[in-house]
Amino acid sequence: MNPHHTLTIPLPEHWTPEQALAVWELLEILTEHIGQRYDLALQEALAAERAPSIDTRQTSLFDDEQDPF
What we know:
Low-confidence stretches: none
Strand content: under 5%
Number of strands: 0
Radius of gyration: 23 Å
Oligomer: single chain
Mean pLDDT: 84
Shape: elongated
C-alpha cells in the first residue's frame, strides 16, 4: 500500500470517549503485535515503497549521441 493512499472509514458519532479510547488502545496493541511479528518484512516493504522511482530507459541526456558542445 502506498503511504499516499488514504482510506476513509466512517466512524460512529455515538461512541463515548471511553469507547473511542478502547478502540484506540486496541489499534495500538494490534500495531505493536504486527510490528513484532513482521518487523523485517515491514521494513523491507516500506523501504520499497519509499524508494525513488528511477527511469532507466534513458541512456543519454541527449536524444542523439553527438556531443552538443
